[in-house]
Specification:
With 111 residues, the protein is mainly α. It has 5 helices and no strands. Bound molecules: magnesium ion (MG). Magnesium ion is lined by residues 34, 37, 61, 64.
Length: 111
């Protein structure tokens, strides 16, 4: 049973008459595409002179990613609350590795 937000997403999801595998592919490609849009903003923030994204721009793209994520979770009969709880439980013991940013930055050639 979809939650309230997933139900809202499903109102604009026009693929529900197609096989689940087709819908999953649509949703995954949507996540990838919208993640790309978010990446583009962050790329410009870092590399485009005089460019600075706004919080609204970043959250707008993040929301687009979330839309497809909600659909994808629904296709596996999972609500956002359930997914959040699963991830919460998974992170309870950490995620298994600790980045060493100073060491990783040192690996990047300085030209
Ligand atoms: Mg977008």
């Amino acid at each position: 049973m979809p939650d309230i937000f997933q139900s809202r997403c499903l109102e604009t999801w026009h693929s529900d008459q197609y096989p689940s595998s087709f819908q999953r592919l649509h949703a995954v490609l949507g996540i990838v595409g919208e993640s790309g849009e978010l990446s583009e903003i962050l790329k410009k923030d870092t590399f485009k002179p005089d460019y600075q994204s706004t919080r609204e721009q970043r959250l707008n793209e993040l929301g687009d990613v979330f839309y497809y994520l909600c659909i994808l979770a629904h296709l596996d009969d999972c609500t956002i609350d359930e997914l959040s709880q699963m991830n919460h439980d998974k992170l309870e013991g950490g995620h298994g590795w600790q980045p060493d940013y100073p060491a990783q930055l040192a690996l990047i050639p300085a030209d």
